[in-house]
From TrEMBL:
Key word Oxidoreductase present: yes
Protein name: Peroxidase
GO molecular function terms attached to this record: peroxidase activity
Organism: Bradyrhizobium betae
Key words of the record: Oxidoreductase, Peroxidase
Length: 75
């Protein structure tokens, strides 16, 4: 992956930080499974599975903790 898509964890607002957390999560999935076709096929299974959706939310929350720490929001 040659393109720089994450120049910084710094964001102007918590909402922008949350959006960055979602992007981090999505990019993690994309790097783990680079095939658009496979990801699309798998999406049909997890979009109907509440446990998998909760797990996805957990991953986003962990990324948001990282972004919040980088922005010193817990002072």
């Amino acid at each position: 992956m040659a393109d720089v898509w994450l120049p910084s964890l710094k964001t102007d607002t918590p909402q922008a930080g949350f959006e960055l957390a979602v992007k981090l999560s999505r990019m993690g999935v994309k790097l783990t499974q680079p095939s658009d076709q496979v990801r699309s096929h798998l999406r049909a299974a997890y979009e109907q599975d509440s446990s998998q959706l909760i797990n996805a939310s957990h991953v986003i929350a962990v990324h948001f903790q990282t972004v919040a720490a980088a922005n010193n929001w817990w002072r």
